[in-house]
Amino acid sequence: MAFFHKAEAWNIDVDRYVNRIVPPSPLHRLPPPISRFLGYRKQQKEDVGNILGAFWSLLGAFCGLAVVAAVFNNTKIIQMHHPPALIASYGASAILEYNAIRSPLGQPRNALLGHTFSAIIGVGITKLFRLRSDFEKVQWIAGAVSCGTASAVMLLTGTVHPPGGASAVLAATSPEIIEMGWYFVPLIMFGATLMLIVGLIIMNIERQFPVYWWTPLPLRVTRKRDVEIGPDGAGGLEERNEDLEEKESDEKLSQITISPRGITLPETLALSSEETELLERLRNRLAKGSLGSSQHSISSGSSANMTMVPSHGALDH
Fold this sequence. Notes:
This protein is of the alpha+beta class. The chain folds into two domains: 30-203, no CATH class; 250-314, no CATH class. The protein has helices at 2-7, 15-18, 32-36, 50-73, 76-79, 89-98, 108-129, 135-157, 162-173, 175-180, 184-203, 244-248, 250-253, 273-287, and strands spanning 228-231, 237-240, 255-259, 262-266, 296-299, 306-309. A hairpin with a 2-residue loop joins strand 3 and strand 4 (262-266).
């Protein structure tokens, strides 16, 4: 029982290692017409009401699935493998990407990698089961194992996308997809990419998609100091391995600094109009000398590269 009690606290956080090599978002540096249709907003706002939401959801799902079906059914190299008219799991993806667009399960990382990992697992497990002469009798087991394994992998990699489970099952149970074999993997990736492109165009006319591309957490490249040998408290020697950026820049990257000359804040921090007005009022008071010439720092929950903003109308995040 003690073993199971300890196991409850086990956790694998791949982002702890992967995020060190993923660069911060460059969207804020792109021209506004481009960055807007990639999901970037200077100031976050509430989503549209459910009447408009229903309209955009209907339009997005129709266009997304229609584009995928049109491309699949009119591309010779794809038709050579005799795919189904439309892969069923895309229907579930359409609900997440064009309806529940703020759900973490429908963001690009989850949609693209969730389908990809599930397809790889589904095809791989199905090929193993097909080594049996009675594959048709155990085909349902292959589907169940594929879905269960895909679910576990998506959870461990932070790419949970429920339609991916359907892709894994289809790889084991759909005759057309079984015959495709490994070709199903690039095909599912291609279709998921087409749906994402449609979402970027249609959802960003009046809504915002995606909310983030990789993670809602701040991204920055981290590096580790070479292992050093130094004295410990007992008079012996110990290894010291410290993350320089974790220690030296965490505080800097999570600050808003106000001075008479301007305001410095994290680039990914979204401010409401009330918060923007408050910061500008504080800056004006400093400029008038009522609070002196010293700078004041206010902690912020988000962190990213810092940008100096000279005026109220130019506040960025």
